[in-house]
Each structure stands twice: as structure tokens, then as C-alpha cells.
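User: My advisor asked me to double-check a structure prediction for S-adenosyl-l-methionine hydroxide adenosyltransferase before group meeting. I don't want to rely on an old file, so could you generate it fresh from this sequence?
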Amino acid sequence: MTLITFTSDFGRSDHYVAQYKARILSEYSEAQVVDISHEIKAFDIAHLSYTVGSVFRDFPKGTIHLIGGNSRGIYLVAQIEEHLFVAPDNGVLSLISDQITQVYQLRTEKNPNKEIPAAIAKLAQGVKPENMGEPAAEYKQFMRRKSRATKQEISGHVIHVDHFGNLITNIDKVDFDILSRERRYTIFFAREKVKRVQSSVDEVDPGDVFIVFTDGEQLMIGINQGNGSQLLGLEYDSPVTIQFED
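Assistant: Sure, here is a fresh prediction for S-adenosyl-l-methionine hydroxide adenosyltransferase from the sequence you gave:
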């Protein structure tokens, strides 16, 4: 059975999530739908892409990932790293991965909120994407913002603030490991400067700043048992820099 994940900015206080699921199940009663999140900030493509991009690879290959959101009535079906995505043509796919292939524009005529769940059900039953629409000659894409690394420093930005107020940056562990080998370094953010990356949050006392790498190997800044975003005055797009000593 093909697994379906569902992510949206629909929230939980209204009926929209249940309605989408009901319409999938009415077309394919054996469908298995797993929620990733429906608490995405409204119209926040950066939040949406970060959430889906952080977890989709943990699902089995061949999983169908449904992304609900502002679509302008246009939805795409695309292959990404051996997963299948159905998402609005709003640029979110380009921020999830740069390995996008076989992009088709789904045929929707009157009511995408009914037609998209029906399309998901067909895909889950084995209908090929090329039979669901026409090849998308053009679709909306954004450039993924990456950190900049030189021999002297890595400069990046906060790309996500999580539920706990922790600040995830676009500074990758692979760059840090290469440049920090047998060298001292200082991490600058807000008015703070820290000279050590911890292996785990538990290495610092409650109330102290920690810096660790996430499971996705991105530098994360926070405060043990505190809200790092509020207490440090950092938010989405705040700069973070690591300077290395010779």
C-alpha cells in the first residue's frame, strides 16, 4: 500500500484537513494518510518547505506527499528523490529539493479542493503521473538560500524558528567540519559570541546558550529550557557567522 503524507497551513480549528482526507478516502478507502503538520504559518512557503524538506526522506521511497496551500488553482505532481509530490505551483517544491524531475501540471477544471484529493487517490492506486496531466514547461521556482563559506569564515542566516524557539540556520555541518579541523573558531550572533559547538543540549546548564547540529546537520542555536528566539532577539533571516583562526 502506498503511503500518503499531508502537510498544509489549514490549521486544526476548521474542517479543511478532515475534508481533504474524507475526499481521498471516498475515492480510495484503503488509503493510509499520515499528517506531517497542519500548523504551518499561513502563506509561509519558507516554513512549509523547511518542514517537509526536513522529514520526507525518512518516509519509504515511493511515498506520495500532498502539500496543501495557496495554489492559484494550479497544482503540480513531481518526482523528487524517488518520492512523489503533489503541491501548489507556488515555488515550494524548489525549496524542498533541487532534484526535481518529471513535473506535470495536474488537470483541474472547477474545484481543486475536490479534484486534488481525487488525484491523490488515483496516484496511490498506481496511476502514473504522466497520465494525470501535461508536462509543465514552466513552473514557479525560487533559489534556495545557502550559507557562504571561505577559508576565514562561514556566513549564514536563520532559516527556521521551531516550536521551542530554537534557531536553525543554513550553516551545514560538512562545511564546519572541514574548516574547523585543528582550528579555533568563534560563532557570532546577535550580541553574543561563543567558541564551542556542543554535542548535545545537555552539555550546558538550564538558561545557558547551546549550539549543536541537528539531525539534518544544520547549525542550531538555542537556550536550554528557554526560548532562544525571544531571549536572544533572533528571528528568521538573522545573520550568524563563524570566524576561524589561522
